[in-house]
Amino acid sequence: MKDHSALIIGSDHAAFPLKERIKQELVRLGYPVEDVGTHDNSSCDYPVFGGAVARRVASGEFERGILMCGSGVGMSMVANRFPGVRAALCAEPLTAALSRRHNDANILVMGGRMIGETMALEILTVWLQTAFEGDRHQRRIAMFDRTRPEAE
Question: 69 near 89, Cβ under 8 Å?
Fold first, then answer.
Protein backbone atom coordinates (compact mmCIF):
# COMPACT_ATOMS: atom_id res chain seq x y z
CA MET A 1 0.00 0.00 0.00
CA LYS A 2 1.25 3.46 -0.87
CA ASP A 3 1.76 5.99 1.91
CA HIS A 4 -0.97 8.58 1.34
CA SER A 5 -2.76 10.94 3.67
CA ALA A 6 -6.29 9.89 4.48
CA LEU A 7 -9.12 11.56 2.60
CA ILE A 8 -12.65 12.27 3.82
CA ILE A 9 -15.52 11.94 1.37
CA GLY A 10 -19.22 12.74 1.33
CA SER A 11 -22.17 13.12 -1.01
CA ASP A 12 -25.90 13.46 -1.15
CA HIS A 13 -28.29 10.98 -2.76
CA ALA A 14 -27.87 12.48 -6.25
CA ALA A 15 -24.16 11.68 -6.32
CA PHE A 16 -24.19 8.52 -4.20
CA PRO A 17 -23.29 6.17 -7.10
CA LEU A 18 -20.38 8.41 -8.14
CA LYS A 19 -19.15 8.66 -4.54
CA GLU A 20 -19.06 4.90 -4.29
CA ARG A 21 -17.03 4.66 -7.52
CA ILE A 22 -14.62 7.42 -6.42
CA LYS A 23 -14.20 5.70 -3.07
CA GLN A 24 -13.30 2.43 -4.84
CA GLU A 25 -10.68 4.24 -6.90
CA LEU A 26 -9.16 5.92 -3.87
CA VAL A 27 -8.83 2.59 -2.09
CA ARG A 28 -7.30 1.06 -5.23
CA LEU A 29 -4.75 3.90 -5.27
CA GLY A 30 -3.84 3.26 -1.63
CA TYR A 31 -5.64 6.17 0.03
CA PRO A 32 -7.30 5.56 3.39
CA VAL A 33 -10.85 6.93 3.05
CA GLU A 34 -13.38 8.01 5.64
CA ASP A 35 -16.91 8.10 4.20
CA VAL A 36 -19.30 10.35 6.15
CA GLY A 37 -22.25 9.42 3.91
CA THR A 38 -24.77 9.36 2.58
CA HIS A 39 -24.80 5.59 2.46
CA ASP A 40 -27.64 5.00 -0.02
CA ASN A 41 -29.63 6.87 -2.64
CA SER A 42 -32.53 7.88 -0.35
CA SER A 43 -33.30 11.59 -0.48
CA CYS A 44 -31.21 13.56 2.02
CA ASP A 45 -29.94 17.07 2.75
CA TYR A 46 -26.55 17.83 1.19
CA PRO A 47 -25.52 20.44 3.83
CA VAL A 48 -25.30 17.67 6.44
CA PHE A 49 -22.61 15.83 4.49
CA GLY A 50 -20.92 18.92 3.08
CA GLY A 51 -20.59 20.34 6.57
CA ALA A 52 -19.26 17.07 7.97
CA VAL A 53 -16.43 16.98 5.43
CA ALA A 54 -15.64 20.70 5.48
CA ARG A 55 -15.63 20.90 9.29
CA ARG A 56 -13.02 18.15 9.54
CA VAL A 57 -10.83 19.64 6.81
CA ALA A 58 -11.11 23.07 8.43
CA SER A 59 -10.07 21.61 11.80
CA GLY A 60 -6.97 20.01 10.26
CA GLU A 61 -8.11 16.47 11.01
CA PHE A 62 -7.94 15.79 7.25
CA GLU A 63 -5.70 17.61 4.77
CA ARG A 64 -8.09 17.06 1.88
CA GLY A 65 -11.62 15.93 1.15
CA ILE A 66 -14.01 15.20 -1.68
CA LEU A 67 -17.66 16.23 -1.95
CA MET A 68 -20.34 15.50 -4.52
CA CYS A 69 -23.96 16.45 -5.04
CA GLY A 70 -26.17 16.68 -8.11
CA SER A 71 -24.60 19.82 -9.56
CA GLY A 72 -21.71 20.34 -7.14
CA VAL A 73 -22.83 23.91 -6.54
CA GLY A 74 -24.56 23.31 -3.20
CA MET A 75 -21.64 21.36 -1.76
CA SER A 76 -19.24 24.09 -2.90
CA MET A 77 -21.32 26.74 -1.17
CA VAL A 78 -21.54 24.77 2.07
CA ALA A 79 -17.85 23.84 2.18
CA ASN A 80 -16.53 27.31 1.42
CA ARG A 81 -18.33 28.76 4.46
CA PHE A 82 -15.75 27.06 6.70
CA PRO A 83 -12.55 29.03 7.47
CA GLY A 84 -9.51 27.56 5.78
CA VAL A 85 -11.51 25.50 3.30
CA ARG A 86 -10.80 26.05 -0.37
CA ALA A 87 -13.38 23.89 -2.14
CA ALA A 88 -13.15 23.80 -5.93
CA LEU A 89 -16.00 22.67 -8.16
CA CYS A 90 -14.35 20.88 -11.07
CA ALA A 91 -15.99 19.56 -14.23
CA GLU A 92 -12.83 18.83 -16.22
CA PRO A 93 -9.15 18.09 -15.51
CA LEU A 94 -7.66 21.52 -16.28
CA THR A 95 -9.76 23.21 -13.59
CA ALA A 96 -8.78 20.44 -11.17
CA ALA A 97 -5.07 21.01 -11.93
CA LEU A 98 -5.34 24.79 -11.59
CA SER A 99 -7.35 24.51 -8.38
CA ARG A 100 -4.43 22.63 -6.83
CA ARG A 101 -1.55 24.47 -8.54
CA HIS A 102 -2.77 28.02 -7.94
CA ASN A 103 -5.36 27.78 -5.15
CA ASP A 104 -4.18 24.80 -3.08
CA ALA A 105 -7.76 23.48 -3.13
CA ASN A 106 -8.25 21.19 -0.17
CA ILE A 107 -11.71 19.92 -1.13
CA LEU A 108 -12.56 18.64 -4.59
CA VAL A 109 -16.24 19.05 -5.50
CA MET A 110 -17.92 17.34 -8.43
CA GLY A 111 -21.48 17.24 -9.76
CA GLY A 112 -22.76 13.69 -9.95
CA ARG A 113 -25.43 14.65 -12.48
CA MET A 114 -23.06 16.85 -14.51
CA ILE A 115 -20.15 14.56 -15.36
CA GLY A 116 -19.76 10.90 -16.12
CA GLU A 117 -17.68 8.36 -14.27
CA THR A 118 -14.78 8.47 -16.73
CA MET A 119 -14.46 12.25 -16.48
CA ALA A 120 -14.81 12.13 -12.69
CA LEU A 121 -11.94 9.63 -12.47
CA GLU A 122 -9.75 11.82 -14.70
CA ILE A 123 -10.52 14.87 -12.56
CA LEU A 124 -9.75 12.90 -9.39
CA THR A 125 -6.42 11.64 -10.73
CA VAL A 126 -5.27 15.11 -11.78
CA TRP A 127 -6.43 16.68 -8.50
CA LEU A 128 -4.60 14.09 -6.42
CA GLN A 129 -1.38 14.29 -8.44
CA THR A 130 -1.08 18.07 -8.79
CA ALA A 131 1.01 19.93 -6.24
CA PHE A 132 0.54 23.50 -5.04
CA GLU A 133 3.07 25.88 -6.62
CA GLY A 134 3.26 28.27 -3.66
CA ASP A 135 5.16 31.53 -4.27
CA ARG A 136 2.82 34.32 -5.46
CA HIS A 137 -0.14 31.96 -5.09
CA GLN A 138 0.57 31.52 -1.37
CA ARG A 139 0.45 35.28 -0.91
CA ARG A 140 -2.93 35.37 -2.62
CA ILE A 141 -4.33 32.55 -0.55
CA ALA A 142 -3.21 34.38 2.59
CA MET A 143 -5.50 37.21 1.46
CA PHE A 144 -8.58 34.96 1.59
CA ASP A 145 -9.16 35.29 5.33
CA ARG A 146 -8.34 38.99 5.29
CA THR A 147 -11.19 39.60 2.84
CA ARG A 148 -13.80 38.15 5.22
CA PRO A 149 -16.06 40.91 6.63
CA GLU A 150 -15.34 39.95 10.25
CA ALA A 151 -11.59 40.34 9.56
CA GLU A 152 -11.98 44.09 9.07
Answer: no
What type of residue sits at position 73?
A: V
Which positions are catalytic? 69, 102
The hierarchical CATH code for the domain 7-151 is: 3.40.1400.10
CA 101 remoteness from chain centre: 15
In the chain, DSSP assigns E strands to: 7-11, 33-35, 64-69, 87-89, 107-111
Q: What angle do CA 71, 124, 22 make, to 5 degrees?
A: 75
Per domain, the residue ranges of the chain are 7-151
Q: If you write DSSP's letter for every residue of 105-133 in order, what string do you get?
A: -SEEEEETTTS-HHHHHHHHHHHHHPPP-
User: How far is residue 130 CA from its own chain's centroid?
Assistant: 14
Per residue in 105-124, pLDDT (tens digit) is 999 999 999 999 999 999 99
